[in-house]
Amino acid sequence: MRLDAMKPAPGSRRPPKRVGRGPGSGLGKTSGKGHKGARARAGYVDKPGFEGGQMPMQRRLPKRGFSNFSRVAYQVVNLRDLERFEAGSVVDGDALKSKGLVSGRLPIKILAKGKLGRGLTVRANAFSESAKQAIEAAGGKTEVVAFRPGDQRAVSGGQA
Question: Taking the CA of residue 95 as centre, how many other CA atoms within 13 Å lie in the half-sphere pointing to its CB?
């Protein structure tokens, strides 16, 4: 097959409409755009959600609930995830990121799902009370690190 010999499938291409060529063509005068109105004008673009003047869906449906602007979204790490680390090691944002447990963009919270059987020094932005107790019961230490948005050093526990 040669590129210069390729042709579209029969019937798949139609000649373009030739508008504004007199009343005999069927597309003269208003050229198929009706009389006046936005759609008859040049440059008309349908806005997203516009339903031809009918009350649009986003205004017909009732508003529900609310979004708390001061909510803090944490990346959750469970105690069972901390079993991947060697006993006595320091677990901070960089260590969690290297194991693929967090992305490094949001603050980190340690929760108490699962068991921890080794002593670790865990640095995170928040701990649940039961997670803190479980880490200390296993012979580890918890350190709360302040989170400053956009500052990766705060997540990794490094010195500012």
Answer: 18
